[in-house]
Amino acid sequence: MEPFVTGQYQISDLDKTREIQPLEYAEKTILKRLNYLIGFLKKETPGLLPSYVVRLNNKFVSFLKRPYKISQFKIPTKLSNQFMHLKVYPELMQSSIAYYLQLLNFDYTKDWTKAKVKLTNKDYIQSFLNQRYYNAQALTEVIERNKAVELYKNYLTSYVKTLAPEIPPYESLEEFREARKPKKENPPNIGWVTVQGIIENGKFPQRKDTCIWHDAIVELPDTELKYLAACYGDFQSYNNNNKHFILTMEHTIVAGDPYCSCVLHDTRINDDLNHPSMEFFDNMWPLAEHQLRKRNENE
C-alpha cells in the first residue's frame, strides 16, 4: 500500500463558469439548511428564536444593493410549503433568497424560479457558504459567543445526520480508501488536492493540500465562523459513512494552516483517537511550495 494523490486545482478554477437553475439550488443549499436551523432552535432554545430571526433577516436585508429588492423575488407557495419551520417567517425566507440571488449576480428582471444563470465557481460557492457564515454570525450576536458556537455545532451535527441516506456506506477503511482512487471514467475532483495515506492500526490519514471553498470566502473576516461554515460538517459526514468512523482534524486551511490534517479512525480496530503530529503529515508526500511558505510564515 502506497500513498496516492487525488484531485486537481488551480486558483484559476475559481473563475471557471457553470450554469445552474437558482430555485433548484436554493432548495438544496439555502432553504433546507435554514429551515432545519429554525426548527432546531425552536426545539432547543425557543425563547431565543424570535430575536435570532429578526437579527438574521435584518442582516440579509442590509446586504442587499440596488436593484435587488426583496419584493421582486416571490416565493412560490409550493416551495414555501416544503419548509414547515421557515414558512412561519416569510420575510426571512424572502430576504435569504434575495441575498442568495444577489450573490449569484442573477438578472433581477428574470423569473428566478425558471431562468438559468451562468456564474463563476467563486460566486457559486459564496452563494451558499456566505449564508452559512451569516447564519452562524447572527447567533453569536444574540447570545454569548461560546454558547452560540457550541449551539451551532450541535445544529450542524444534527443536520448532517439527516443526510446519511445520501452518503454511501463503507464497511471498512480499506473500502473507503479504495473508493478514493482515481478512475479513468470519472473526472478528477476539482478544488481539493488530497494525499491519501496508508492505513495502519485502524487509522486512515489524509492531507488536503488545497481548498477551493477557503479561496472563495477568503475575504470573510471571522476564521472561526468560516470553519463552522466550511469545515465542521465533515465530522458527522464521515461518521455517516460508517458509525464506527470518527474523524479527527487538527489543522485546516481555513484556519490558516498549510493544509488540512485529517485522520479517519475505525473505532472497532482502535479507539485511541490520538492525532499524528504535523511532522507526520509533512512527510506523507512532498509539500508544495505554497505550503512551505505558509508553514514558514506561521513559525
Summary keywords:
single chain; alpha+beta; about 45% helix; 7 strands; about 300 residues; two-stranded antiparallel ribbon
From the helix content, strand content and strand pairing, which structural class follows?
Answer: alpha+beta
- How many individual domains? 2
Cα Rg: 20 Å
Oligomer: single chain
Write down the secondary-structure element order.
EEHHHHEHHHEEHHHEEHH
How are the strands ordered across the major sheet? 1-4-5-7-6
Low-confidence stretches: none
How many beta-strand segments? 7
Strand content: 5-15%
The geometry reads as globular
Average predicted local confidence, pLDDT: 95
Count of individual helical segments: 12
Compute the separation of the termini in Å: 33 Å
Q: What share of residues is helical? A: 40-55%
How many strands, which pairing sense, and closed or not: the largest β-sheet? Answer: 5 strands, antiparallel
Secondary structure layout plus pairing:
Blueprint: E1 4-6, E2 17-20, H1 22-44, H2 49-63, H3 77-80, H4 90-103, E3 117-120, H5 121-140, H6 145-161, H7 173-180, E4 194-196, E5 203-208, H8 212-216, H9 223-230, H10 234-241, E6 245-251, E7 260-266, H11 278-282, H12 289-298
Antiparallel strand pairs: 1-4, 2-3, 4-5, 5-7, 6-7
